[in-house]
Amino acid sequence: MADEEIDQDEMAAAMEAEAAGDAGEEDQDAMAAEWEAEAAGDDDEDQDALAAAWEAEGDAEDEAGDMDAGGSGERVLNQDEIDSLLGFEVDEDEDGERTGMRAIINSALVSYERLPMLEIVFDRLVRLMTTSLRNFTSDNVEVSLDSISSIRFGDYLNSIPLPAILSVFRAKEWDNYGLFTVDSNLIYSIVDVLLGGRRGTAAMRIEGRPYTTIELNLVERMIEVVLADAKAAFEPLSPVTFELDRMETNPRFAAIARPANAAILIKLRIDMEDRGGRIEMLLPYATLEPIRELLLQMFMGEKFGRDSIWEGHLATELWSTKVQIDAVLDEQQMTLGEVMKFEVGQTLLLNATSTSSVEMRCGEIPLMKGTMGRTSGNVAVRLTHSVPTPPPADDDENQDVEGAS
Predict the structure, then answer these.
(1) What is the pLDDT of residues 285-314, one digit of tens each?
(2) Which of 189, 363, 366, 367 has its CA 20 to 30 A from that of 253?
(3) Would you say 248 and 182 are in contact if contact means Cβ atoms under 8 Å apart?
(4) Within this chain, do residues 42 and 130 fall inside the same structural domain, yes or no?
């Protein structure tokens, strides 16, 4: 019996332990569920708070945009305004005036309009080339001046349409170089005309091959004719000799100045009935520097305000002007009281003898020194040597009273 009671007690204790374990597990599960619910609620609240903050920021940005549109805040530039500021207009012509940043960047270029004599020289060149090329080709040739503009040397080299022939020439008297560019249309037209091509047919052109020796020689002869005309065009302004230095087909080998240097570009159009092309002359400003003062003239022979007739008349009158010369024997310094005591008949003693030198003055400027004498009953002075010009006198010395006789 005792054993059975012990077994029942053990079974009751085990059942209580199991019940307590089940109750603990249930409590822990309940607590875990509560924590998860609280955490989920907190996450929802945080997300709601973040969403509310984002909505508030979006509303603030919208309000700021409305303020900008109203002009009360800083306004954002659109693309058209940015292009206008930088000077890159879509519909801008090549010859149009540049504005914005492009105008500032290109402000270093000197306009050819500041050299008025250039247009006169190149108009003369057009007339001379018309006559000389007619004799050279035995054909009706018309030469016209398309434009004169300023450009950077590097930009010009990059804009040359290839294929082309570039002729580098040297100005001997100016000790610098220039450049002639002959485009392909004019090259084939000259070759066709000189070799007897038929009129009314377009010049044969074979792309993708280098120029032959015959083509180079014919173009070289034409360039020599143009250089002779350019020499004659500059002759009334300044004698100069243009010599052909070399012929190039690659622009990189025709570099005669730094890429950033400014130059003057002259575009000439040569028409031979139904054929023709363009020839361009490039002169860096460094080449024209020796005759810059001559190019600044408004007309041929201008002397920049000087009148030779008036200069000659003024020189003639100056030579015939009469001036007073004083012969100073001696000088003495006296007080004003002594001068006030002078009387008629009083004798003043001078520290000079008959052999003392006499100083010749014009006003206050000493000129010469000589000795006193007499000739033909007149008092005379024989000049012996000149006197160096003294420095200007001080104001204190000018207050002294000097007497001279």
Answers:
(1) 888 888 887 877 766 655 555 567 878 888
(2) 189
(3) no
(4) no
